[in-house]
Design the sequence.
């Protein structure tokens, strides 16, 4: 059942929008909630809140004083501004619609939930073929993002409870400068008022809903760059060109950084600070040997030896019994009236633009269940122009699975996107970009139009307030250096061509050489591509694999070569390193130090416990995690992560680490 405020707002919009203009006294007399208010002041306060909500929807509500009587205020909705907010092509609208679906609407903040509904109000039809071929992106969906983005745009401070790497949560008061995505995760960069210093906060570690505070006062950098700030956290005066020896077709991220052939065994990385280089090399420790600098090589052997030694000793399982289960943060992503109202208006506009729409089609477009859609239509049915009597209510029908909406012309209009909502949409576009392929040009043109619209909106803001365009541009931060452009583009072009081809034709299949992360060597596979999916900074191809005789997911950056049709399929030859295919069976418990807490977040830990007497560490339970990336993460953590159970996985860590030690001590 919709709240009374949603019904009231819809009635106010219908009553104002159904006539050329209406004065305040008449409006207060015909809207039941205003007329029934306990006092004139209460009605005034209610109406002021409603005006703000209507403007936030993107409806051009105009207040005008009567030229003959200054005490009379009249209201109207500016019909001259009722056209489409963004001048989009069908292709641009399609990729924006796909970007809006990158958010988990049930977990994200209000801005993300409103975006899809507002796009549907534009009256466009998507290109179904392009929508099928557009990557399915995934954005880290957190309810705390909307108030953080609003604070950046408004130039205000916020306070929230934050769990840093070193222990229990504590309240932080922050003036955010930029909120952006890096490697698939959201970060907040700004001025920490209690520490009088610039700080970076990972949004997923915020454990309370951010509360808006006073206006920001600290000097703000002219162009805050989240990518630069995060990279400087691994900076050092000890910098060099590392000489690396790697197994052919392995350590692909390192090869891409160096810009060398995928089968070249020895190559140099660009100049990197020692901490950054160590982390990159440890993440690929199963496949690489650091040849020089000699001091860095000795450090690699020492770190890997320490990891092996930790896992050779008996695990302290007693710590699991005395640890205290950590309560999950309770941050509700409850629907707000603005979210519901934008969906109601968009549903009415969507139907009236098309005459009639199937119930299941409309529910799918809005991203809600058919049951929720019927509840929405029931709300429309009892609302309308309150100044014309009950006979002038909205007519909504949904019998026999077909929806029709009449007598609701004031709702047939495009809802403009706010700066915060545009920022949420730009983050969704960034999630699609790595797998965009031939749609990349459309993604870029849609991004440009969004940025232009946001820049225009922010132009009137005070100079001290960060523009929404700057916030949006920060969202495009990406690990582009982790891909070789030519190889990635050729693979994407071939995949998109296969997706466009007719089912059953030779053009609908691809033959590839694939380098799996879980074993040595490469395999040759013939695939029928089904769709592209993006998860954070990575893109995957879902395809039917003839070799596996079923559907499989392949990381696009591990497709190392496109082969001629008819090339015989093959699996990797047996190697000497442990095979890490598939998932661990059952539970995996990890003990994580401060530098290893990211593993629990990256693998979506099912449970976290705080060990007694050690506030800096945590214990994380992973349910059936994928083996290869987990082993690589433990090695990458440089000793900050220990596998407690199962014992077989501890043995695998020992084997992988000792092999790395041997390569670096020969």
Sequence:
């Amino acid at each position: 059942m919709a709240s009374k405020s949603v019904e009231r707002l819809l009635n106010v919009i219908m009553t104002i929008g159904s006539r050329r203009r209406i004065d305040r006294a008449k409006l207060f007399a015909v809207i039941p909630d205003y007329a029934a208010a306990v006092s004139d002041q209460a009605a005034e306060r209610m109406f002021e809140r409603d005006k703000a909500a209507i403007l936030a929807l993107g409806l051009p509500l105009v207040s005008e004083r009567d030229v003959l009587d200054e005490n009379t205020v009249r209201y109207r909705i500016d019909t001259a501004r009722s056209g489409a907010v963004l001048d989009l092509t069908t292709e641009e609208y399609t990729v924006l619609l796909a970007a809006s679906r990158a958010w988990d609407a049930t977990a994200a903040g209000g801005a993300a939930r409103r975006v899809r509904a507002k796009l549907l109000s534009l009256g466009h039809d998507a290109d179904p073929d392009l929508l099928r071929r557009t990557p399915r992106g995934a954005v880290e969906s957190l309810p705390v993002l909307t108030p953080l983005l609003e604070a950046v745009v408004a130039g205000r401070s916020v306070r929230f409870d934050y769990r840093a790497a070193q222990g229990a949560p504590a309240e932080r008061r922050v003036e955010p400068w930029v909120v952006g995505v890096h490697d698939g995760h959201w970060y907040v960069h700004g001025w920490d008022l209690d520490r009088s210093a610039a700080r970076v906060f990972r949004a997923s570690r915020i454990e309370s809903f951010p509360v808006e505070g006073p206006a920001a006062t600290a000097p703000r950098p002219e162009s805050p760059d989240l990518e630069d700030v995060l990279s400087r956290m691994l900076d050092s005066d000890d910098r060099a060109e590392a000489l690396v020896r790697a197994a052919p077709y392995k350590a692909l991220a390192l090869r891409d950084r160096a810009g060398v052939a995928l089968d070249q065994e020895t190559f140099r990385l660009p100049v990197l600070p020692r901490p950054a280089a160590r982390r990159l090399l440890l993440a690929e420790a199963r496949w690489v040997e650091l040849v020089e600098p000699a001091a860095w090589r000795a450090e690699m052997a020492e770190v890997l030896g320490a990891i092996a030694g930790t896992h050779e000793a008996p695990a302290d399982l007693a710590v699991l019994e005395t640890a205290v289960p950590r309560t999950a943060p309770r941050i509700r992503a409850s629907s707000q009236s603005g979210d519901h109202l934008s969906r109601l208006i968009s549903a009415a506009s969507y139907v009236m633009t098309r005459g009639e729409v199937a119930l299941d089609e409309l529910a799918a477009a809005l991203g809600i269940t058919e049951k929720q859609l019927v509840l929405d239509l029931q709300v429309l049915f009892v609302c309308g122009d309150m100044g014309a009597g009950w006979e002038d209510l909205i007519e909504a029908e949904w019998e026999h699975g077909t929806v029709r909406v009449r007598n609701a012309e004031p709702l047939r209009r495009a809802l403009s996107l706010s700066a915060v909502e545009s920022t949420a949409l730009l983050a969704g576009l960034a999630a699609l970009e790595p797998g965009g392929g031939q749609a990349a040009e459309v993604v870029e043109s849609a991004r440009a139009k969004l940025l232009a619209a946001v820049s225009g909106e922010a132009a009137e803001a005070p100079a001290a307030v960060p523009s929404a365009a700057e916030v949006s541009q920060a969202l495009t931060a990406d690990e582009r250096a982790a891909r070789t452009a030519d190889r990635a583009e050729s693979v994407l072009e071939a995949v998109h061509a296969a997706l466009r081809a007719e089912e059953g034709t030779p053009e609908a299949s691809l033959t590839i050489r694939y380098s799996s992360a879980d074993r040595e060597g490469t395999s040759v596979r013939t695939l029928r591509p089904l769709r592209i999916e993006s998860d954070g900074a990575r893109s995957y191809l879902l395809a039917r694999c003839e070799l596996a005789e079923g559907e499989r997911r392949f990381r696009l950056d591990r497709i190392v070569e496109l082969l001629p049709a008819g090339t015989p399929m093959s699996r990797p030859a047996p190697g000497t390193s442990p095979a890490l295919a598939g998932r661990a069976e059952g539970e995996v418990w990890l003990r994580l130090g401060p530098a290893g807490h990211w593993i629990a977040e990256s693998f979506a830990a099912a449970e976290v416990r705080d060990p007694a007497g050690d506030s800096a560490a945590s214990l994380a339970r992973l349910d059936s995690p994928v083996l290869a990336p987990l082993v690589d993460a433990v090695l990458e953590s440089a000793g900050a992560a220990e596998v407690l159970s199962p014992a077989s996985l501890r043995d695998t860590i020992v084997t992988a680490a000792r092999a790395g030690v041997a390569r670096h001590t020969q």
In short: The two ends are 72 Å apart (CA to CA).
